[in-house]
Amino acid sequence: MLDAVDLPDDIAALKAMLIASQLREVRKDERIERLEKLVAAFKQATFGRKSEKSDPEQFDLALEDLETAMAAVHAEDETDSAPGKRQPKSRAANRGSLPAHLPRVEEIVEPESLICTCGGGLHRIGEDVSERLDIIPAQFRVIVTRRPKYACRACTDGVFQAAAPARLIRAGLPTEATIAHVLVSKYADHLPLYRQAQIMSRQGIDLDRSTLADWVGRAAFELRPVFDALVADLKRSAKLFMDETRAPVLDPGSRKTKTGYFWALARDDRPWDGGAPPGVAFTYAPGRGGQHAERILQGFTGILQVDGYAGYNRLIAPDRVGPDIQLAYCWAHARRKLVEITRTGSAPIAEDGVKRIGELYRIEAELRGLPAEARLAERQARSVPLIAELRTWLTQHRARVAGKSPLGEALAYIAKYWDGLCIFLADGRIEIDNNTVERTIRPIALNRKNALFAGHDAGAKNWATIASLIETCKLNSVDPLAYLGATFNAIVNGHRQSQIEELLPWHHRTG
User: Fold this and answer.
1) Where is the Transposase TnpC homeodomain domain (predicted)?
2) Model pTM?
């Protein structure tokens, strides 16, 4: 609590302090409410009847994401504390142990000068020693930081010592490289935290899963500004891809899962030799409604390439308020419906349709990597006649095929989205399909077991933040481990918020 002598005499300054204090209290109340919900879910998952619990691996995944979400809230609370306010004592937790057999790499942090302010020389009187767990590929080691203490023999001006280096986890065991390793193992290699803890235990490193979850949650909090910068950069593009996929979300205390969705917003201008680097940003939403796409795309104007999901129609509704968006549709989805029919038996019409669409794809394969102008010219010369023939073919067969038959429904789908399917003929930047974003979202579809978030959006938000940066690294041929390590080092060394875009993955390219 501030003393009266610490308060400024200026009325405007006092008002500013009061407003800032009130805002901090509001944010604090919001965090308390979020924590209460997380704790309630944690207790239900932990102490609920055994008959209500899911299998052990899913249960462990749920708990670690709950703990990660809690840690992120704690980190936000610490950052939002009033300036000069004493930090509360950290909660008791197993911080881990560092066995003696691990190799030690010592670094000594000396003061800038060993000359006292009185002119005398400083002599060493002691030191502070701290140890943190560091990881390099396939090797654990301990970084020992020594900070010698010095005092002057000629006077009593005090003890001189270099300041302790900044850390991502204050007073914690891990180096920034260790945290990066844990994130990449969990979100890129799909290795849950409890399994990572088991791997470390074989080296004699005693760490609870909850300790690793705390590291991940705090790291996710620190990476959110970088993630926000990634989303903002993508939405400044003139053309993007979008897709969504189911994310089973474990409901603590229940043997069932509920369904959430990950929405992927992607950019890849390489097929038309564009200059913007590729990237993808995931956003979790509790549903699949078009309002979620509209919220994610707020501020974006341009071409959005999607599949035929009806929810996207909200983006082009006549009464919609917001920037104009033009939808380009996906020939892969149209072809897929015909391919499914050919797999059930003889289907000459469907086979003919697949062949016709395949001719368009053969042309596109030859045009990949050419400038947009060259692609457009070739499409006008070669693809436009094929599309005209395909339109005639579609009209003729729709008139002869039963509308409610599988083939009739497949043809109706193509007819419904015809204008959007043909937009690629008028713009060399547009792809023939939405496969670009489907490839980025495939890791989620293939690893749904690792997409369990204990029924809370907070855990999914952390997943989206970290996974977006890792997948964007992959798109730019950047090593996620090296990138995250360098990014954490930049953050702890006070990287300016105004220059946050410098921390986006494509700026980490080497060679």
Assistant:
1) 34-106
2) 0.81
